[in-house]
């Protein structure tokens, strides 16, 4: 596509956290304990020692401590579906997730720490919409609290010492989950992906590194933190994200102008499936979700809110369904349960 994703592009004003395009924003900090091998080089006792040191920093009245070694596979997968665990962390099943019991009442930020993932700590703050500032503030406060009580591995030349060299320096990563139906439906998404890749951004599936794309959802993040400060990465990333947001909005306007009947027909056909089908697969859910969201974006009546729509891509995924109803562990039954629950949500909107 013709858009030039130059990081010098000036920011535009945010529109209610840009929730028409951005599902969520995440800030992640990688930290390791001084004079302690990285998790992949620790034995069971060494990993347990790291967990206990980090756990002691957090107030049990405000945080929950989830021992992944004691969870079932389905329970671990539910944390991946909630974007609180990476797929690798869930599969390893030997770490601990420290999770804030309550989201911040003002911003909606949810804070958590993966202990013994690739690094000793992956501090992560996730917030609805496009809101780097709130996520950055929450992650920074947790980092300060940890650093007051534990000595963090740091080198004057290299910065924070991390298991992966791309995280050296400030060990800082921003990611945003984007819903890009207009660019996808118009066939311009591949050009966008090529343009993003040239900026140094990564574009990945909804569960992060190594995951596949799901429907019309895409996750972008900075590829490396080495050689740049946190503020430089924030400015650079925000400029690129805002160019993508505006590209999606322009394409949405163009679709409505030139193919309004076809676009509305696709949305209402998806809604018809959602309201009357008795079995809905995960793949079908992805298209229904995108159509519901796009219907709200273009102003169609009787569409559920962005927040309600976004709950669907967590609550109706396999592990969440199985935890709510063990019968959903069977794929054929799971698709029936998903259809019933989706119909209930839409009938209430």
UniProtKB/TrEMBL annotation:
GO terms for molecular function: ATP binding; creatine kinase activity; protein arginine kinase activity. GO terms for biological process: phosphocreatine biosynthetic process. GO terms for cellular component: extracellular space. Residues 1-20 are annotated as: Disordered. Its EC number is 2.7.14.1. Keywords: ATP-binding, Kinase, Nucleotide-binding, Transferase. This is Protein-arginine kinase. The lineage of its organism: unclassified sequences, metagenomes, ecological metagenomes.
